[in-house]
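User: Fold this one for me? It's DUF4440 domain-containing protein.
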Amino acid sequence: MRQYVFGTAAITIVMLALSGSLLRTCSFAQEVPAASTAAPAAETQASETEAAGESSDEPASTAESPAGSSAPDSADAEVRQAVEAYVNAFNARDVDALIALWSPEGVYSSRTSGDQLVGRDALRQDFSDLLSDEGAPTLAVITDSIEFISPSVAIERGSATIRWNEESAEQTTYTAVYIKQGETWLLDRVTEADVVEQPSHYEHLKSLEWLVGDWIYEGETWTVEFETDWTVKQNFLSRRYTVTGNPGNESSGLQIIGWDPLKQQIRSWLFDSDGGYVHATWLPTESGWSVQSVATLADGGRGSFTSHLEPIDENSYRWEKVNRVLDGQILPSLDPVTVRRK
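Assistant: Here's what I get for DUF4440 domain-containing protein.
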């Protein structure tokens, strides 16, 4: 790391102009076609003993499936089939089929007014009003999880999209409580909440968008290849690099560039495969960017330096490093080099 941050111009470009790793999110949700304004969703108010029909004097340990435990695959599949049946009935505008999927005392809590629809008669009236004309919405749901509270009580959590037309749609998250009566799983409680979109920091970072892509710097004895891309939601720029062709000095690492909402400035964090790291502040200049960096080396050494990045055209930029200090010793500036798009 000491060599990469404070060594030759060839190696130092690696630490300043490169690196990155794309941060990704995974969803293990299972998607089925859709859910209602009363799309399955809700906090349970039914206790395990009430739903399972067990006596309050019965020890909890006698239950077949303790609270929060997994259920047989068959039970999970049955609940998913109930969700799919609900979606199909809604999209077919079949009010009778929808009502048959609710328990007689089923409760839907409105996310907008907080009012509750209690019982099949109230639910029937609401669905009839919603689905009576050709402009009725369609719905799609994604089941995120199913948790079995007891053999006859399950909680399904997911998200729903209510689409009125090609240009108008609403998204919600929901919690639905299912109870098993006989051989049938019925909806008993449903609540929904609006999806809260977190703001993206893209507006603060878009002036660095020119860095996105694959880049290369070829020195006399070694080559640096790196790639830059946006992370999900464009809240960070991710840069990944590798250095090859210089025996003993080969390296790899990543740099994450993002907007610091607390300090209200662009900052970056670079991690080298040798165990050192660099944190920096990015400041715009008339011709590009000034990156003020502080490094901690793998051996505990400390240093600082300033990098200048100046775009030449859409396929190249100029880079130089100045004001270099290592463990209190002032080092000479490095000659500018040109990094090119692959």
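One thing worth pointing out: Residues 73-91 form the longest helix (19 residues).
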